[in-house]
Amino acid sequence: MARFYTKNWFPYTFPFLLCFSISQATIYLPSWYLHLSIAKIFIGGTLLWMWREKFSAELNAVINKKQFILALLFGIIGFIFWIATSHYGLVQFHPNNIPSEWNIAIKTIVIIILMSGGVIVLPIISEIFWRSFMLRYLIEQDFKSLPIGKFQLFSFLGVVVLSAIPSSYPVAVAAISVTQNLLLIWQKNLKCCILSSVMTNILLATYLLLNNYQLP
């Protein structure tokens, strides 16, 4: 019997689950938030690079001009969801926790690392897990036998619910999960969802920085 780490689903799931576990650890170890967040980005990026050939079909898909524009628009909608839910108290942004005594060079490096992870590494890991893997796996265990964008109502709702339940911000995450699912079903291209998530995170990170909030 094949070992679990040789299964075709392992590269799709392990990076996300490991990064999620590290994120959860920051809740209970707030003094280690920056250290764990930086470690999460480097670990996640390393795993993506190590297994890049496993999901090369998804990441190398061609995206046309229409899909590019749609992805940006969906990304803006995702950002609006974050701001709207924060306005109604459903999302609470935390104060910036980068130590004030650090010199400007160190602060800048930390911000660049956190933003790079938030707008590049984590969106890829998240979309590979939820949209490429989970949306199909909830239909068929041999998920690669199904085309990207294939869904059933159960898998659609399953992804929305499963992504929202463990989150500290379930309403925002559920709303964004719905729009990301719809974008994938419509365009059948995972890069649209990745670009949309990148756009959302760029806008959100900029908003957090300008308002002196903690980067996610």
How would you explain this protein's 3D organization?
69% of the residues lie in helices and 0% in strands. The longest helix is centred in the middle third of the chain and has 34 residues, at 104-137. With 216 residues, it is an all-alpha fold. It has one domain (8-210). The radius of gyration is 17 Å and the shape is globular.
Q: How many DSSP H or I helices?
A: 8
From the spread of the alpha carbons, the general shape counts as globular
| Total individual domains | 1
- Strand and helix order: HHHHHHHH
Largest sheet: none
Proportion of strand residues? under 5%
Termini, distance in Å? 40 Å
Question: What would the average pLDDT be, to the nearest integer?
Answer: 94
Structural class: mainly alpha
Contiguous low-pLDDT stretches (5 residues minimum) are none
Helix content: 55-70%
How many beta-strand runs? 0
Q: What is Rg?
A: 17 Å
Q: Quick recap of the structure?
A:
The chain has 216 residues and is mainly alpha-helical.
Task: Describe the protein's topology.
Elements: H1 10-28, H2 33-50, H3 56-59, H4 65-87, H5 104-137, H6 153-164, H7 170-187, H8 190-210
For this entry, give a set of tags.
216 residues, 0% strand, globular
